[in-house]
Specification:
The complex is a heterodimer of chains A (about 325) and B (about 250). Chain A is built from 13 helices and two strands. Chain A is an all-alpha fold and about 325 residues long. A two-stranded antiparallel sheet of chain A has the order 1-2. The longest helix of chain A has about 30 residues. The radius of gyration of chain A is 20 Å and the shape is globular. The model of chain A has no long low-confidence stretch (mean pLDDT about 85). Chain B starts with a strand and ends with a strand. The longest helix of chain B has 16 residues. Chain B has about 250 residues and is α/β, with parallel strands linked by helices. The radius of gyration of chain B is 18 Å and the shape is globular. Helices cover about 30% and strands about 30% of the residues of chain B. In chain B, the strands form three sheets. A six-stranded mixed beta sheet of chain B has the order 6-7-8-3-9-10, with helices on both faces. A four-stranded antiparallel beta sheet of chain B has the order 2-1-4-5, with helices on one face. The chains are: A mainly alpha (about 325), B alpha/beta (about 250). Chains A and B meet through helix 8 and helix 9 of A and helix 2, strand 6 and helix 3 of B.
C-alpha cells in the first residue's frame, strides 16, 4: 500500500523538479522571459548550471537532513549539526583573510598565493567543513553517545564561529564576500560544480539507502537495533560520514543555505510515513525542489535586483515550521 | 533432561569500570519459560542484556551450545530476539512496518522484504489481533496496544530464544492473561522464553525462577521449591508472604 504512495510521491517530486528547473532556465536578470531562446549561451552556460546546481545542492541538503534526523532520532536535527557550517565559514574566512593580507603584504601574487587561490574558496569551505566534523567526532570520542555528539557539535560551532568573527573583525575588507557565503548563494555555480555535486549526490544517496536499515532499527532504540543484528557503531560512523560529505559539498558550493535540510524531511514525513530508504530518496528530491524554487523566486521576485537565496529559504522554512507548530497534527513531528 | 538454550559460567559484567554482575552460573533450559526476578537495581536488565550479547561480559556464555563471542551479529540476531524495557517507538512507523523490522536479521543489505517475510509478519499480525491497527502509527496507539505491537516485533524474528525485559509493565489483567497465553504457546512450540518481571505473582507462573540480588545469583529453582520461597522472603526483607491459591502461588506484601 505504501509502495504505491512512494511511487506517486517520487514521480510528483520529479515532475515538480523539472517544472522548477524549466522556470529557472526562463528566469533572467530582468525577470521571467516567456520566450526563452534555449540556444542562448546565457541560458546554457549560466542559467543551466545555476539551476541544476541549486537542485543538486538542495538534494544534498535534503538527504543530509533526513540522515541527521534519523541518526540523532530527533526531528529538529539538521545537516549543520556536526559543525559543518561553522567549519566551512571558517575555511572561507581564512581563505579571504589570507588573500587580503597577502595582497597588502606582497603587493603581488607569489607562487604560494597562486596555489592558494587555485584551491579556492570552495576547497577551503569543503576542507573546513570536514575538519569541523572530525573535530566534533574527536571531542565526542566517537559516535557512540548521541548527546555527547550533539554537545560537541555545539561546542565546535561556537568556537569556530568565534574564530571566524575574529578573522572578519581583523580583515573588514572580507565582510561582503563573507556575508554572501553566510547567506547562501547560488550565483557562482559552474558546470564543473554540477558534475561534482551530481556524482557526490549519487554516491551518497546509494550508500545511505543501502545502509538505511540501521536508521529503521534505530527508531526502536539503539539496543533493539543492535539486537536485530545491525552493527550499530560502524554503520553509524559510515552514515555520519555520508551526511558530512553531502553537507560539505553543498555548503562548499552554495554557502550556508538555511532550513532546506531541516524542512525537506519534515515536508516528506507529513505526507508519507514508512521505511527510511523511501524517506531518504523523497527528502532528497524535496530538498532539490525547495532550493530550485527558492532560487527562481530569489531571481524573479525583485528583478532586476536579486535576493540572496538563503534569505528566502530562511523565511519560507521558518514560516513552514511556524505553521507546523500551530497545526493540530504537531504530535506527528 | 532438556538441553540448555543458554549457559553461563562465571559471567561478569562491568559498566563504566563498576562491576554490576558477579560470577553468574546459569543454565536455562530450552523450550521453557524462565523468569528473572529481584529487587530494583539488582541487575536483572543488565543480566538480560548480557545474555542477549548487547553489552560486553567476561566469562563463559554459550547460546545453544555455541560460544556467543564466536557468533556473527546476524547469527546472534536470528538465534535470540530481544524486547527491551519501554522500547521507545517514538516515531511515525506503522504497526506493520514495526513488525517488519523484526525480519531485519533475515534480510541482507541488498534484498528487501521477501514474500516469506511478508507472510510471517501477516501471521503475527493475525495471531496478536493487530489487524485493525496495522496501518496506524505507533503514536496513535494506547500503551497496551503499543506493548503488543512491540512484542509482535520481537516475535516476528522467529528466534528459538526470546528475551523480554518487563514486557507487560502497566498492562491490565486481560492483557496479562493474553501475554501468559502467548508465552505458554511459545514454549509448547519449543521456544525458550526468558523474561524479567517485576510482578512476582506473574513470575511465579514461570517454569523456572532466577532470583538476582545485588548483582549475584541467589537461586535458580522451580516456583514450587520451598528454598526459592525462603530466598525470596529473605531478599525482600521478610516483608512478604507466599501462599498457594487454587494451584497458583500468590505473593503478598505485608
Amino acid at each position: 500500500m505504501n509502495l504505491s504512495r512512494v511511487t506517486v510521491l517520487t514521480w510528483s517530486l520529479l515532475a515538480l523538479s523539472l517544472m522548477a528547473m524549466a522556470m529557472g532556465l526562463m528566469t533572467g536578470s530582468l525577470g521571467w522571459e516567456w520566450h526563452t531562446d534555449w540556444h542562448d549561451p546565457i541560458v546554457q552556460d549560466i542559467r543551466l548550471p545555476r539551476t541544476l546546481g541549486a537542485w543538486l545542492a538542495g538534494a544534498l541538503l535534503g538527504l543530509a537532513g533526513a540522515l541527521a534526523q534519523g541518526l540523532f532520532r530527533n526531528p529538529l536535527a539538521d545537516p549543520y549539526l556536526l559543525g559543518c557550517a561553522s567549519g566551512a565559514s571558517l575555511g572561507v574566512a581564512l581563505a579571504l583573510a589570507i588573500g587580503v593580507w597577502g595582497y597588502a603584504e606582497v603587493g603581488q601574487l607569489s607562487f604560494a598565493m597562486q596555489w592558494w587561490f587555485r584551491l579556492g574558496l570552495t576547497g577551503m569551505a569543503f576542507i573546513g567543513a570536514w575538519v569541523a566534523v572530525l573535530l566534533t567526532l574527536m571531542l565526542a570520542r566517537g559516535a557512540e553517545q548521541t548527546l555527547r555528539l550533539l554537545l560537541a557539535g555545539v561546542v565546535v560551532g561556537v568556537v569556530l564561529g568565534a574564530v571566524t568573527s575574529l578573522l572578519t573583525f581583523a580583515f573588514p575588507q572580507t565582510l561582503p564576500a563573507m556575508q554572501s557565503f553566510l547567506l547562501g548563494n547560488t550565483t557562482m555555480l559552474s558546470g564543473q560544480a554540477c558534475v561534482m555535486m551530481g556524482a557526490i549526490w549519487l554516491v551518497c544517496l546509494a550508500l545511505s539507502c543501502l545502509l538505511s536499515p540501521l536508521l529503521d532499527g534505530l527508531r526502536l532504540g539503539e539496543a533493539t537495533a543492535q539486537s536485530l543484528g545491525l552493527q550499530v557503531k560502524p554503520l553509524r560512523i559510515l552514515l555520519l560520514a555520508v551526511m558530512g560529505l553531502a553537507t560539505a559539498s553543498a555548503v562548499a558550493q552554495t554557502g550556508l543555505i538555511a532550513f532546506v535540510g531541516l524542512v525537506a524531511p519534515h515536508l516528506v514525513r507529513s505526507r508519507f510515513q514508512g521505511p527510511y530508504a523511501s524517506l531518504l530518496v523523497l527528502s532528497s528530491l524535496m530538498g532539490g525542489v525547495l532550493l530550485t524554487t527558492a532560487d527562481v523566486l530569489a531571481r524573479g521576485l525583485w528583478a532586476p535586483q536579486e535576493l540572496p537565496v538563503g534569505v528566502l529559504t530562511g523565511v519560507l522554512g521558518g514560516g513552514y515550521l511556524l505553521w507546523r507548530l500551530h497545526s493540530p497534527s504537531v504530535k506527528a513531528m | 533432561m532438556k538441553p540448555f538454550a543458554i549457559q553461563t559460567k562465571d559471567l561478569h559484567v562491568s559498566i563504566d569500570k563498576m562491576q554490576v554482575l558477579h560470577s553468574m552460573d546459569l543454565s536455562i533450559e530450552a523450550g521453557r519459560w524462565t523468569c528473572v526476578v529481584g529487587p530494583n537495581g539488582a541487575g536483572k536488565s543488565t543480566l538480560l542484556k548480557a545474555l542477549a550479547g548487547l553489552i560486553a561480559s567476561t566469562g563463559q556464555l554459550h547460546i545453544q551450545g555455541r560460544a556467543l563471542i564466536e557468533m556473527s551479529d546476524k547469527d546472534r540476531a536470528k538465534c535470540m530476539a530481544w524486547l527491551g524495557q519501554q522500547e521507545s517507538g517514538s516515531e511515525d512507523l506503522s504497526v506493520r512496518d514495526v513488525l517488519m523490522l523484526g525480519r531485519l536479521p533475515h534480510q541482507s543489505l541488498w534484498t528487501g522484504a521477501s514474500a516469506q517475510d511478508q507472510s510471517i509478519v501477516q501471521a503475527w499480525i493475525d495471531r496478536l489481533q493487530l489487524a485493525h491497527l496495522q496501518d496506524r502509527s505507533l503514536l496513535q496507539l494506547s500503551g497496551g496496544e503499543r506493548q503488543r505491537v512491540l512484542l509482535g516485533r520481537a516475535l516476528a524474528v522467529q528466534a528459538p530464544i526470546l528475551l523480554m525485559d518487563e514486557p507487560i509493565a502497566n498492562a491490565d489483567i486481560p492483557h496479562q492473561s493474553d501475554w501468559l497465553q502467548t508465552v505458554k504457546q511459545l514454549t509448547q512450540q519449543q521456544t525458550t522464553v526468558v523474561s524479567v518481571l517485576h510482578d512476582l505473582n506473574l513470575a511465579m507462573r514461570a517454569d523456572q525462577v532466577v532470583l538476582v540480588h545485588q548483582g549475584r545469583l541467589v537461586i535458580q529453582a522451580s516456583p514450587e521449591d520451598p528454598l526459592l520461597h525462603q530466598a525470596l522472603t529473605d531478599v525482600f526483607e521478610r516483608r512478604m508472604l507466599i501462599h498457594k491459591v487454587t494451584d497458583h502461588w500468590v505473593v503478598l506484601a505485608i
